[in-house]
Specification:
mainly beta
Amino acid sequence: MPDAPASTQQTLQFRERNLSAYAAQLLGENFSIGARYRVSEATLTGRFPEIPSATLGLSQWQQDEHAVLHQVSLTANFHHRCGVFAQWESVWYHQSNSGYSHALAGDDFWQHNVFVGYRFPRLRGEVMLGILNLTGQDY
């Protein structure tokens, strides 16, 4: 029966590599700034090892997907000895994609976040409120 249902094994191989760097600087008693860079590369390979590689149309079912994400985070911090603190964070994201069966667009945008909070004495706890995506960036 040539049209009978059948199954075949699919192998998936995923790999993600990351590299990051961080620098911070105190500015007086109450202020600090920081910068972080991170790059992530992810690849997904999918194959059907039981199907001969010369089979017509097999390439449309195999996966060779690749994505690279760059992130830059810039922060400005205020800390008071009474426990009150505030933080401004701006994060830039840039992603590129390749190898998808249907073209998958990358993206490039900034997101700004703001936080305020209180640290209890002896660092026993922390209460923090924040607004993420302050400018309402659509991504």
